[in-house]
Design brief:
Blueprint: E1 17-19, H1 22-37, H2 51-56, H3 66-81, E2 101-103
Antiparallel strand pairs: 1-2
Length: about 110
């Protein structure tokens, strides 16, 4: 018997609310860089970590990598529906600015 909850069409799936902070963005980006290069590395200046660099590239300020949101949604779906509920394809959405609070169901 499954221990996963049962949902009906249209029901809200509530996930954790997390604050987007410059520190969280830097940790995430450095973790992704470290994983990609197979060595512990800290990400440098880019649109995600440096407000002035981001402005020079046409953004309002530094912004979170869209994959942070995708990963948080994936975690929420995995908790609710199990590991088999992982998305087959992901896309990045609009820029998410530091100080924003995101709820996966909104």
């Amino acid at each position: 018997m499954s221990t996963l909850p049962t949902f009906v069409v249209g029901a809200e799936l509530v996930g954790p609310v997390r604050a987007i902070t410059p520190t969280r963005i830097e940790w995430y980006d450095s973790a992704m860089l470290s994983a990609a290069t197979d060595e512990l590395r800290q990400v440098g200046v880019n649109i995600h970590t440096d407000p002035e660099f981001a402005k020079a590239e046409g953004f309002v300020t530094a912004n979170a990598d869209g994959m942070i949101m995708t990963n948080w949604c994936s975690e929420m779906l995995t908790r609710a529906f199990g590991f088999g509920a992982r998305a087959r394809r992901t896309t990045a959405g609009a820029a998410v600015l530091p100080g924003a609070r995101r709820h996966a169901a909104r």
